[in-house]
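Batch manifest, entry 17 of 40.
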Amino acid sequence: MANSKISALPIATGIQGDELIATVQNGDTKQTTVSKFKNYFVSTDITAEAGVDVDLNQSIYDDTFMFKISWTGGNGTSVCTLPDAVSHANRKIRFISDSTFSSQDHLDVTPAAGQTLDGSSNAYRINKDYEGIAIWSDGVEWFIIQKKA
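Output type: structure tokens
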């Protein structure tokens, strides 16, 4: 497939980590592997507010690995709906609240309709400062893989 446009190439599936990838570094084209990409993630700051919900199915959140949550306004509950687990297979997401949270501020991390988080349709509630979770999708449902409280 020499001289093909990148957009014309077939989509890679089942990446293992040892596949060669072309990259440009300091003006020189070099090769690397998927496994060499370490410690890179996209973070997004979200401001939660009572009665204001956040839907992570929006495309602006597709590349976000870490969500830092701040609270504003009066006490109450905000719902954060997780992206579709099926279309986000093997995706890992982390949530962490900052110092603006109190026990009367509730961010409910909720699976999408018809899906589960740790086998339940119930939300995981973040309601204190510096609390967080890490979740992972197996392509069917979300799993809580780590909690920080």
